[in-house]
Amino acid sequence: MVRGSKSIVIEHSCPQCGAPVNLQETDRLLHCEYCRVKLIINSNPYPRYQIPLDDSKAEVVYLPYWRFRGMAFSVGMDRTRTGVVDSTLLALQMRGVPMTLGVRPQAVALRIMPTGAENVLRGSIDLEGARKTLEGRLQRVDRISQGQGRHSYRVIVGETISMICLPAYIRGSFIYDALTGKRLSHLEVPTDGVLNRDRHYRVDFLPTLCPNCGWDMEMDRDSLVAICKNCESLWDTTHPTPRRMDFLLIPADAPHLYVPFWRIRASVRPFPLRSYADLIRFANLPQVPRREDEERPLHFILPAFKVNPNHFLGLSRAATISRLSEGESGLFPKSASLYPVNLPVSEAAEAIKVLLAELGKPRKDVVLAFEEISVRVEDASLLLLPYWQKSYAYLNPEVRYSLPKASLRYGRYI
Ligand SMILES: [Zn+2]
Ligand SMILES: [Zn+2]
């Protein structure tokens, strides 16, 4: 569990037998203990939960809140501080309505919003806007508590992003909290803009059958990827129907497990970072760039899984500077195990900016340019690296960074 925060519990009934099932917010697989069915929870575009309301006399509308839970990085001149953020933020602009839900989502079991629930108000604050607001807030807290100077930047990598909906009702020209009955806001001009509904959501429960061969696939409870051990394929389960995933694998002799990384090619401004030789110069690595380094494209390599944010940065740096081989595309070996992929590539890419500050020498040049840095992802693929177990950690001899088992365990509950 993440220190100082309680996780959210979601109550659902099994789509097959109706038995109650308790889920965690990071769960992407529903496993019913009664009828043994396993179903992939497929929410688009994001999981949406409601704070339950048992009975209501009025017509209920739901006020949407963004829910972020993930890594926070504070990039300063001397070093990067890390933390975990656990926060909700109102997704619409409505004076009088609380900006956050505080501890309310942890006080009761939430429910999965069903497809076709048409009474969620449409928010004008999108995910990026919410992320910026949260970063801005943390920035202020940072300056006060740590007395940091002007040059400190916060970046949030939201690993668990969902929407939590608070029930409310409208009476006359006022909106009320349906749970407490408290009057929240006066709808000065109750226009369509205020009362627009957000219908862009659906949730489906998909069987774990391989779309290619019909075999029962394996999937960890928090993984975005299912494995078919029969036709040795990987499937991205975040699409309305699972999509076959291409991947690169560095073959090895009997590794304990394959650990997933995102291998990202990006265009970065204002720094020239196209080739491995550029990286040698940028990071002042103790090597002389060779001719082939000028031609070798630079890939940022970041974990495709959640882990303690300090290790996330250390591992990203070590993997990006290591001269890993290209890897092979093909099949996923029947006998191999895969560590769950639970960090989407879009979220990993948010951390590239932070990684630049860890790589660049002198560091201050990167931090001073931080606001102007832009990172545009051009190409990304899943790279599976072999790891071997050694007492309390997993190791890969090429990436010189050991991965403590404890931090992996912690990461699965972020
Ligand atoms: Zn069941
Ligand atoms: Zn298959």
Number of strands: 22
Number of domains as seen in the coordinates: 3
Strand content: 25-35%
N-C termini distance: 7 Å
Mean pLDDT: 90
Q: What is the SS-derived class?
A: alpha+beta
Rg to the nearest angstrom? Answer: 23 Å
The stretches of 5 or more residues where confidence is low (pLDDT under 50) are none
Small molecules bound in the structure, each named once: zinc ion
Q: What is the general shape?
A: globular
Oligomer: single chain
- What count of helical segments does DSSP give? 10
Helical proportion, percent range: 10-25%
* Biggest sheet statistics: 9 strands, mixed
Q: Could you describe the 3D structure shown?
A:
The protein has 414 residues and is an alpha+beta fold. It has 3 domains: 48-204, no CATH class; 209-240, no CATH class; 246-411, no CATH class. It is 19% helix and 34% strand. It has 10 helices and 22 strands. Strands 1, 2, 5, 6, 7, 8, 9, 10 and 11 form a 9-stranded mixed beta sheet that branches. Strands 16, 17, 18, 19, 20, 21 and 22 form a 7-stranded mixed beta sheet that branches. A 3-stranded antiparallel beta sheet has the order 3-4-12, with no helix packed on it. A hairpin with a 7-residue loop joins strand 21 and strand 22. The mean pLDDT is 90. Residues 14, 16-17, 19, 32, 34-35, 37 line the site of one zinc ion.
